[in-house]
Structures
1.
Amino acid sequence: MPINILVVDDSASMRKVLRKSIQMCNIGSITFFEAENGQEALNVLKGEWIDLVFTDINMPVMDGFELVNKLHENDLTKNTPIIVVTSDVSAENAETAKRNNIKHIIYKPFRPEGIRDLLIDLLGLEIMEDDDDSESEGLDF
Amino acid sequence: MIQNLKDLTSNILETMFYLTEETEPIQKEQNFKYAVCIKDEKLDMILMFSGRTAVTMTENFLGTDDITDADIVDTLKEAINIITGNFIRISMNDQNAKINIPFMIDNISSIKTESYQTAMLFYKEEPLSILLKVG
């Protein structure tokens, strides 16, 4: 069964890079959903079950912290794992993340390898061997 | 401070954009096609790229050679955003400054380079110019 991953970032390039980085982890079949900001992400979540959310913090319309709060307030999404991906390495940002019960932060710059162990741990997955069947699948929006 | 920024930029471009800094070439051409900027009351930073460096960087970042000019612009903005985020918090030790949204400078010849601290990185014999104004 594919894993549904929602990637939230106002940069289209960063969304592509995150998708590629996740695909390189070789964790099996993945269906990707994308959103440009927190509000778009909530709209996606209204119609789709999402197993894992990657989100930026600084975004227009609705930022990552507000999105996380909304997810925590909803019974259906309060346990959805969230990984924050940010270039803001400030102590204040880390403290705000802690206050918002964000347990996983990936700081930019990152390498795809940095995402792999976190994903396996979060989703309780095993690494798949390289073969044709292990190519990730996804929906393009 | 400009040396810190140069080292940080080199590190970030290598880590996320797979660009490895080269030694300074004997013949230098300063043919910049793209300039991206982040500006606020404390910091004014500009990165200037040759067309080839910008294309290579974008292809490396996105993992494809099928790129558009919009991809290049988005990638350069992402790069300066990452560099600024790290530079302000670590090198300037400013935990409170809000990081502004980057923008492209269309008229590169209008940039008054003499009013900035400057540093150069080289990739495939082409320069990447770093301009910094603090305070």
2.
Amino acid sequence: MDISYLSLLLAALLLSIPVMVFYQLKLEMIRNTLLSFVRMGIQLAVIGLVLQFIFQQSNLWLTLLWMMVMLSSAIWTLYKRLKIKAGILLPIMITALGTTSLVVMPWIVILVIKPQPLFAPEYLIPIYGMVLGNSMNSSALALERFESGLADNWKAYYSRIIMGANLLEASIKPFRQAIKTSLMPQLLTIATIGVVSLPGMMTGQILGGASPLVAIKYQLMIMISIFSGVCLTDYLAIRLYIAKRFDSYYLPLEIRNQKGAK
Amino acid sequence: MIEIELQKLFYQDRELLQAQKLQLTKGDKILLMGSTGSGKTSLLKTLNLRNFSYVGRISYNGKELRSYKAEELRSRIMEVMQEPWLGEGSIREILLEPFGYHVHKRKKAFDPNTYETERKALFVAFRLAESLLEMKAEQLSGGEKQRIALIGALLLKPEVLLLDEISSALDQDTSKLIADYLLYHFSGTILAISHDPLWQGMWQQKWELVDKAIVVHQSQGGR
């Protein structure tokens, strides 16, 4: 069932509820709220047009190009968020996210879905978006946790290296902790899926007319891909980060971006 | 076996030591003295690749220090900290952890036939109760932690020990026991920092850091 533009405007009238709440509480959020929704509308319209064009063309190179745009924007987001020197962070994230993309995507597309043609953008792009988005958020969390794990207890780190520990041996405790903390939210989502909320992908498919059974199979596949992708990205990101975080005598280096220095 | 030829030792932009030639021979037991901030710890840490704020050349067994792999050198020249961080788990596990490091595994440092005997002997020598083994690090006193850290290092049989104020939390009796053990039962080389007057009376070879130079004292008799 398509939604007409007029109906969409009627949906927007629902926003009168938050507007009234803000007005009553004298919360200065009305302007911001409306602006955010307008911005979202414009962004979605642009992306919608771009995606529609890419889907129509169904061209391998165009699809790959768009996936590269997605990857670059994920890396850029991480760079802005983590405030780690570009020379350190960029190679780490390009390798970690790149490897995840090259392992998970071909696996799913070639072995599992086998769409016609193989590079059909209507499959590749949404799935990649989900794997990439989750990997990006999770690896940011993992790196932050690893760094704070180190910083909370430098003495533990030094106590190990002075007894002959190598880099991995000296940082294994924060490493374990970071992987655990970054994967916990994922596991939590997986454990509760379907009971309370139907995930976005499933909702979309069911609304689009697919049978719930098909939607569930897709959802299972996507959750497996996301979790495996996230785990691989987090692991690689920290492994590579450790190698750049210390000098060849395992002493810590300056890694903060000057602009972001605290 | 350790040859130190320094043109300069510094900390940030402060000069700690001017041109200096020093040598440690196998089996030497040297006490490093000097007022706070004179650079004792900086000098000590140059020897296990923890400090590179110097101009000059340091070699170990004829080989430039920097050319060693860090874990290899640190397994041979081992530092013991004043306030060690021991780790989670029981003291038994804490003492065993470093034996799992690659560098010690490669050298087969862990000998199941002798480990317990050696450990027990050290516990007796340092007056530590066997019941400590099942305790966690946070249940130990500062003095007990210092002794456990030293035992942890001794069990790994390093060639050189770098000791940074390791008797600061010990009473005089225990402090003497430790010094006795190190001077008469440990066959390797030691460079120790200490403010403990008791230690200063016992150690025959002393390096004193004054006015950006090291004065070597060689006392008569004993060691």
